[in-house]
Amino acid sequence: MSGTTLPSGDRPVFYETEEHAHPEGASTMLGFWIYLMSDCLIFACLFATYAVLGGSYAGGPGPRDLFELPLVALNTTMLLLSSITYGFAMLVMDKGRVGATQLWLAITGLFGLAFLSIELTEFANLIHEGATPQRSAFLSSFFTLVGTHGLHVTFGIVWLVTLMAQVARHGLIAANRRRLMCLSLFWHFLDVIWIGVFTFVYLLGVLR
Amino acid sequence: MSDVGHAGARHGDHHAQGDAPHGSLGGYMIGFGLSVLLTAIPFWLVMTGALGDSRVTAFVIMGLAGVQILVHMIFFLHMSTRSEGGWTMMALIFTVVIVGITLAGSLWVMYHLNANMMPHASMPGGDGVHDMQDMR
Hints:
The complex is a heterodimer of chains A (208) and B (136).
Chain A: H1 28-53, H2 63-66, H3 69-94, H4 98-128, H5 137-170, H6 174-207
Helix pairs in contact in A: 1-5, 1-6, 3-4, 3-6, 4-5, 5-6
Chain B: H1 2-19, H2 25-48, H3 54-76, H4 87-117, H5 128-135
């Protein structure tokens, strides 16, 4: 208020002394979306790093020697299935069916776990073959990019289990619906990132 | 006063939910079907080498990835120009611009850096280190 000039004359002036109402959660979805966009920038940096360093093998193994596309295809399937089952969870949530929502969330979590297990198996195989992150710049950037995505999926699963406990305790109240919608955005966003990973890292890597 | 506040909050909740993107079963199934196709085709192209030329294959799979990202945005993330009064779209456009600058800029700069710093890119008869010293 310090910047305003005081009114001269006899026109009445009204000030709003109370802030207008901000209903709980009204801006959550936009705020969460902006978080996702900033997360997108993290992945953009990691993709850029991989694009720059992805050809520096340091005399070590390249993508063609390391990547097993059938395994990646299976992994992609798991993540895509988890996306559609989360969609089903949102649909039954709209109808207020607690049991069905919990069931679809559980199935989503299982697909997420399958994705993680396959990815960790792949990482274990690579490390067993000596293709560790320390081997070359290509492998460092590969493990950083794919590992960061995997870490996001891990935390997504932790969040999913937390929300299942919340729903079990309090039911599908407005706050829980809002949280589930945020996780929905997060989960589908991870699938979008994975499209970039399987295309640019795995498929283009094998083509190179 | 508390009555008004309560009514306002309830209205707000309703507003938040009414505004929120809701998918339909049909929408999710269309999105899923398209995604399966757009995932299966690039894997098939690369694993069988059906197109022969790897450069053409690379462009095709990058194009398919772009289309699939759009499909996910529309059918799974329910993006539209109307959600949250257009602000999610503004944030998205801003992010796409920054991501474009980050990726294109990194590749552009680092490609030229590599081309100028590689020892084998130097003139015949000298290695990179001598070149650098000559330039001083």
